[in-house]
């Protein structure tokens, strides 16, 4: 049975949302470490790409209301995969982190031509493309 519901990972202080925020609302950022203390870096961790804005909640196509949207990029054998997490403000003003099912993650098993790669800094673009281009053999 496929579960299409997000899974709550845990809650953190709302200030941890600032680890993904910039001075512009929902500006994309790429960082080399996990921004939320309740998420353990997965095996093959590469970097995190996403955005956040604590003062401007957004509703996703799937119907989730969130203030942070992050993709954890990781190398999984000869593939690059992503795990998607969203942060949602709780009633007690903390930040609940939810893992989104991979079926709702449009960047699962990335290809070099996927749009999210062009949103990365040139250095990250090249690193991800190098890994993707070297799939299946060296």
Describe this structure in words.
This protein is mainly beta and 138 residues long. It has one domain. Helices cover 12% and strands 36% of the residues. The chain has two helices and eight strands; from the N terminus they run ββββββββαα. The chain has helices at residues 115-118, 122-133; strands at residues 7-13, 29-31, 45-52, 58-59, 65-66, 68-76, 79-89, 94-100. The longest helix is centred in the last third of the chain and has 12 residues, at 122-133. It is globular. The mean pLDDT is 87.
What is the rounded distance between the termini? 37 Å
Largest sheet: 6 strands, antiparallel
Helix/strand/pairing class, anyone? mainly beta
Number of helices: 2
> Kindly state the mean pLDDT as a whole number?
87
Question: How big is the Rg?
Answer: 15 Å
> In what order do the strands lie side by side in the largest sheet?
1-8-7-6-3-2
Poorly predicted regions are: none
Strand content: 35-45%
> How many separate domains make up the residues?
1
Shape: globular
Number of strands: 8
**Which series of helices and strands comes N to C?**
EEEEEEEEHH
How much helicity do the residues have?
A: 10-25%
